[in-house]
Amino acid sequence: MKNVHASGLVIGDRGVIVMGPSGAGKSTLALALVARCRASGVPARLVGDDRLLLRRHGSRVVARVPDTIAGLAEIYGYGPIAEAHEQAAVIDLCVRLMPARDVPRLDPGGAELVEEVEIAALIAAERAATAAIPAILARLEALGRSKTGCDETRA
């Protein structure tokens, strides 16, 4: 099991991990995605914030929250809060946060190798949750397994 610096969440039946350096906005983006989907009536929950344990299961990767931080999320400028969570999720999308200058204008539709498994990937700008949310929700819809039901066009 690999311990990674990332946040994870479930939107509908889709698992998402958000990766990037400290201060990139992983927690803010994960919490904003959960709030957006819940406001649309779509089930969404945090898996873990700041640290995830990743394990390959056949051709899938499962993210699990370490027991020591289960149910906690950090709000930047405030501190940790209690947050409803799932213990684990199969990962369908890896969001990589990078400096805005390195983010392509259009999603190239690529994949990222996570625990030796190709996972659909999206590159998003650091500290830009408002801009990233529509792209993430659209990418999840494009994966075609099932609808998340979130309204990706609403700001």
Automatic annotation (TrEMBL):
<dbReference type="GO" id="GO:0006109">
    <property type="term" value="P:regulation of carbohydrate metabolic process"/>
</dbReference>
<keyword id="KW-0418">Kinase</keyword>
<dbReference type="InterPro" id="IPR011104">
    <property type="entry name" value="Hpr_kin/Pase_C"/>
</dbReference>
<dbReference type="GO" id="GO:0000155">
    <property type="term" value="F:phosphorelay sensor kinase activity"/>
</dbReference>
<protein>
    <submittedName>
        <fullName>HPr kinase/phosphorylase</fullName>
    </submittedName>
</protein>
<keyword id="KW-0808">Transferase</keyword>
<dbReference type="Pfam" id="PF07475">
    <property type="entry name" value="Hpr_kinase_C"/>
</dbReference>
<dbReference type="InterPro" id="IPR027417">
    <property type="entry name" value="P-loop_NTPase"/>
</dbReference>
<dbReference type="GO" id="GO:0005524">
    <property type="term" value="F:ATP binding"/>
</dbReference>
<feature type="domain" description="HPr kinase/phosphorylase C-terminal">
    <location>
        <begin position="3"/>
        <end position="81"/>
    </location>
</feature>
